[in-house]
Amino acid sequence: MNEGVINLAAPRATLCGTGAVLLDAEGPLSLDTQRRIWALADEMRDREDVIDVQPGMNNLLVMYDIASMDLEQAPQELLARWNATPVKQREGRTMEVPVIYGGELGMDMPDLASFHKMTPEEIAHLHAASEYVVFAPGTGPGFGYLFGLPPRLFTPRRKTPVMRPTGGLVSIGGAQSNLGGPRQENGPATHPTGWHAIGHAPNVPVPFDLSREPPNLLDMGDRIIFRVERVEA
């Protein structure tokens, strides 16, 4: 279950708007495929006719300077570059995050336990047994989409979003897990989400800080290890 990710038999590149090309990689989500996406992103980022690149889950969006190139030729060129791009190793950092599973801020744990026919303790320890890799930038600065969720815990995202508290929530959605940033002073107390909250990290660091170098706490290829602090009813 790779919700939101297209599983293609062959890669494809398509025009997006008037100045970008989206490359969708072949096959399911995998670390080797994502490493190729990172490598191609690094290569394209250095080109003078490229304004920006945005790696995604199993895809890469390349934004071009249309004044300096023929965009009609860009999809085929990007496909050719993809086919020639090898897997590139990236040695990232590792961050350990203590998590309180269940409880008031892991309010969806009982539903997940019922759905998977597991106890909350089994879910917590299975979730924490994996190592999660930051695959792509997330919807907010600092944290990203995490790959590594055990297949036993794959859970469909909600069809209708619900309101959940902000502040270090650990969630599951589809084949992915997520770690939310801390609640910001004067920021919203809740936010809409289709993910399932199974716990929270009480001391999660600030994911993005312009006074820090680099500003992002985590980059693509970095890893998160969740540690079970306790499981609450």
From TrEMBL:
The keyword Flavoprotein does not apply. One of its GO terms (molecular function) is hydrolase activity. Coiled coil: none annotated. It comes from the Bacteria. The keyword ATP-binding applies. Keywords: ATP-binding, Hydrolase, Nucleotide-binding. InterPro entries: CT_C_D, Cyclophilin-like_dom_sf, PxpB. Residues 11-218 form the Carboxyltransferase domain. It holds the Pfam family CT_C_D. This is Carboxyltransferase domain-containing protein.
